């Protein structure tokens, strides 16, 4: 009965590091197992759906918990319930507002059930996206040496800001923030402005990603259809595009702008070109293919719940692994082509340092962007004390993947005969449509993006319509109007501005300004100021971070 001697009331300003919800004190290792829930004596359902009642002892303990919670106002955080009134781990039930409670048969430490390995993998898989296709182009824009340095520095900076996001809830006193997301923290510090601005920048990131997906899906669908048609009809089309010779051909599409599209060599096995001109007319990369996607994806966007597509998330991992494999094989066959020119440019190589480096930082801001959902991902970590370590490892692996793909593609790009300036914003465009390995990569990415796109649309719908109508699906009309606007933006970009590097860096720098640079730094400074712990070095460092984010955004429109 040693715990019976513990006082019910503690002095204000005591150690509150282990306070839980309802102002009940827990040991950190017991936080999950001893969290009290409201349990009715009836309608208790276990995980095997067997109807059962709670024991009299558990019911009495539950009443005592409610008694202690009402002895003082929750705001003063003074009341601590002694351990002996808490239910045993085998008598804990999770209460549902629907009137049922599910028994926790195997209570584990921490908030979630995922191991550190699974958590690291989830963060890596979530962060890896379409930006990986533009990393080699970004290195070319910044210069080889400065590109590597920027990837390392941006990885460290975005990791620190992400750490500040994770810690932001813990710095709010007297309030249970266990179920808060980062927009809730922004609302706490900045009121309605924080709520609506976080919604705006979150929508920018979502819609920007959906536009990039539409442009890439149009690209992949066009090249895939072209490959299949030519293969089925045994047609050999050689466009007048500068490139290398041999089986490992690399092309320079950006240098072909001066060549009229009719300047090509077409060979038909059957000796006639029946249907080929018609196919060319109806299968155009910017004129027709973006509209074909509307017929496929618009019905999927209007589904109330796209949970079916979440089952295909593994395709993202398969696609990235295959891209790494493709890059490795291509580099082994092409060899390394590097020449160091620190500040001067020649016909085949770019300087090591270039004034266009902010274009890479814009891409990297989105490439390392996970700040709006990192709290949710880490909440599922079984060992909460490992959150910072697991987040750091995940960022290290993401940065390593970006470095590997970017450096290998840049270094193996055949210069001469081609210039490094030929590296495209989507490096797969540097391989012809009849390249087998690139064809497989495009198939993987196309199917993956077509399954992820409805999920992104669902997230955009939930965030926007729920704010205005209180319902993620207020009516078919409202959902259709929103989806038509999103799809229209994708079609317009694929039609008039198929520049994925530009779209990525603009959306990355815009949403990154808020979620990566400004809000985490401001919230940390404000919380330190309110606690009387703000120092000049901390203030200067975080103001500098905010200025870096602002300069990153402005530079995207100047270069």
UniProtKB/TrEMBL annotation:
It holds the Pfam family Aa_trans. It is found in: Late endosome membrane; Lysosome membrane. The keyword Coiled coil does not apply. Coiled coil: none annotated. Signal peptide: none annotated. InterPro entries: AA_transpt_TM. The chain crosses the membrane at residues 117-137, 143-163, 196-216, 287-303, 315-336, 356-378, 390-411, 439-460, 472-497, 503-526, 538-558. This is Neutral amino acid transporter 9. It is a multi-pass membrane protein. GO terms for cellular component: late endosome membrane; lysosomal membrane. It comes from the Eukaryota. One of its GO terms (molecular function) is metal ion binding. PANTHER family: AMINO ACID TRANSPORTER, NEUTRAL AMINO ACID TRANSPORTER 9. Keywords: Amino-acid transport, Disulfide bond, Endosome, Glycoprotein, Lysosome, Membrane, Metal-binding, Sodium, Transmembrane, Transmembrane helix, Transport. It catalyses: L-asparagine(out) = L-asparagine(in); L-tyrosine(in) = L-tyrosine(out); L-leucine(in) = L-leucine(out); L-glutamine(out) = L-glutamine(in). Belongs to the amino acid/polyamine transporter 2 family. SLC38A9 subfamily. Residues 115-226, 292-555 form the Amino acid transporter transmembrane domain. The keyword S-adenosyl-L-methionine does not apply.
């Amino acid at each position: 009965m040693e715990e019976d001697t513990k006082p019910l009331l503690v002095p204000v300003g005591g150690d509150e590091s282990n306070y839980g919800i309802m102002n009940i004190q827990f040991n950190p290792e017991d936080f999950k197992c001893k969290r009290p829930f409201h349990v009715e004596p009836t309608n208790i359902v276990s995980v095997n759906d067997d109807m059962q009642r709670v024991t009299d002892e558990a019911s009495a303990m539950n009443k005592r918990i409610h008694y202690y919670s009402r002895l003082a106002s929750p705001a003063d955080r003074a009341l601590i319930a002694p351990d002996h009134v808490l239910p045993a781990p085998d008598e804990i039930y999770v209460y549902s507002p629907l009137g049922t409670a599910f028994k926790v048969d195997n209570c584990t430490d921490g908030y979630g059930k995922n191991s550190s390995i699974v958590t690291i993998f989830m963060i890596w898989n979530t962060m890896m996206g379409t930006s990986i296709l533009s990393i080699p182009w970004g290195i070319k824009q910044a210069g080889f040496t400065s590109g590597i340095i920027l990837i390392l520095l941006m990885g460290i900076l975005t990791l620190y800001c992400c750490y500040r996001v994770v810690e932001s809830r813990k710095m709010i006193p007297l309030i249970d923030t266990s179920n808060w997301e980062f927009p809730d923290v922004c609302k706490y510090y900045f009121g309605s402005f924080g709520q609506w601005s976080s919604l705006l920048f979150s929508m920018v990131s979502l819609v920007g990603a959906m536009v990039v997906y539409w442009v890439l899906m149009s690209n992949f669908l066009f090249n895939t259809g072209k490959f299949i048609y030519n293969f089925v009809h045994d047609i050999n089309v050689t466009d007048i595009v500068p490139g290398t010779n041999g089986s490992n051909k690399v092309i320079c599409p950006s240098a072909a702008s001066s060549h009229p599209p009719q300047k090509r060599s077409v060979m038909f096995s059957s000796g006639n070109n029946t249907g080929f001109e018609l196919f060319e007319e109806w299968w155009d990369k910017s004129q027709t293919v973006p509209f074909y996607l509307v017929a496929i994806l618009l019905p999927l966007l209007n589904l109330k719940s796209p949970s079916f597509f979440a089952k295909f998330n593994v395709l993202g991992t398969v696609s990235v692994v295959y891209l790494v494999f493709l890059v490795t094989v291509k580099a082994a066959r092409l060899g390394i082509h590097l020449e160091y020119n620190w500040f001067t440019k020649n016909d085949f190589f770019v300087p090591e340092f270039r004034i266009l480096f902010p274009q890479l930082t814009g891409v990297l801001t989105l490439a390392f962007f996970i700040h709006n959902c990192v709290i949710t991902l880490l909440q599922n970590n079984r060992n909460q004390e490992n959150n910072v370590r697991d987040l750091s490892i995940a960022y290290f692996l993401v940065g390593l993947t970006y470095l590997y793909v970017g450096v290998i593609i840049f270094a193996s790009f055949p210069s001469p005969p081609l210039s490094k300036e030929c590296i495209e914003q989507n490096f797969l465009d540097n391989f012809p449509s009849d390249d087998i390995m690139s064809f497989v990569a495009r198939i993987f990415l196309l199917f993956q993006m077509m399954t992820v796109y409805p999920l992104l649309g669902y997230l955009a719908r939930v965030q926007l319509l729920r704010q205005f109508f209180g319902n993620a699906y207020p009516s078919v009309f409202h959902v259709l109007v929103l989806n038509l606007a999103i799809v229209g933006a994708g079609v317009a970009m694929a039609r008039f501005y198929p520049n994925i590097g530009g779209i990525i860096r603009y959306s990355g720098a815009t949403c990154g300004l808020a979620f990566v640079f400004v809000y985490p730094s401001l919230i940390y400074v404000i919380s330190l100021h309110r606690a009387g712990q703000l120092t000049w070095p901390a203030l200067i460092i975080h103001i500098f971070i905010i200025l870096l984010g602002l300069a990153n955004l402005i530079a995207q429109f100047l270069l």
